[in-house]
Amino acid sequence: MTRERLAWLVVFGAAVALLTWVARHTYWTDAKVPMPLRGEAATNPFYVMEKLAQALGAHTQWNRGLSLPPANGVVFISAWDWDLTSDRRQRMEHWVESGGRLVVDKSLISSTDAFERWSGIEQKVREPALPLRARFPHQQAPTTRCYTLDEKGDSRDSYSVCGMDAASSLQTIRSMTWALGRDTWGIQAGRVTLGRGSVTVINGTPFAERGLFDDDNGRLFVAATQLRRGDEIHFFSEDSHASLLELAWQFGWPALCLLVVLIALALWRGSARFGPLAAPADIARRSLAEQIRGTGQFTLRVSGGESLHAAAARALNEVAALHISAYDRLPGSERMGALAQATGFEADTLAAALHYSGARRSEHLRNAIELLESARRRILIKNTRSRHGNRI
User: In whole angstroms, what is the distance from residue 269 CA to residue 33 CA?
Assistant: First the structure.
């Protein structure tokens, strides 16, 4: 057996051994994987809590602003800035002292100790005797596991709760009307009375996302809110902010409506029109003389004056034929003499104007046409006076 074959046998044996080991140490099983949140559940951090409260007969509302329920209602706060404005903080404090039930979790934002001074509840970080991993050598740290908490009071009920912060605990100088904790970890949820209302603080975020489904978290939610049928519960959070357009519409919709109207008017004013900007002015009618002069000037400019001269000569001959005896049968010289006698112009001048052959655009053509028209008018005027008995 050659070395090459021996090497191939070794490789094949190692592969078979590996496959055998994998087959003996692996198995197939089904695992449930939660589907990603969709619709309102993906945008509303209190969606599950609202559905649970509604199923128990309460009325719920998720507010982006500060819309408080009636004095006997419930407010649940998560990821909310307590010190954002003093006015908002004072409104919340007055509502609680008037009979409201306030519930806050560990995600409450406070840059000062205003909430602690008002409620009397503060969070203290504990220093365990052993590290968390050492105290739970075979389990996860208690900050990520579910563990049992006992009620402090007459009932002594136990809760299996997830999502609490076992590395810290709650402390207060006031008397707690309800508390949940363990001797080893201290108080993890507590309630104190303020005025006619109450404040409940939860040292963790057990209801975040799908946390309400874990062990007794749903039961803890009902106990912390003291939920009863017919209650009105409002949820507040600043994790999910409304868009700028939503806020503008919510707080300034009258100004937005006015702005839209002004923009529409500006667009309408600057848009193209289907008619003139103003009604056309009335056009005055031209006199007959202006019309004749305009027509003559146009004819002279376009056709060179030839047709205009021919029309003037023809008009003079027609008038002369009507008022001068045998005008059409007279020879040329006698005809010019009769025409000169009837008009008062010289015969040679009339003949030159009637038979003008010079430049069609010269001043001489204009003079010739003017002479022919003057001669025609004199014949008409003379014969008009003769018919009315004013013979010259």
Answer: 60
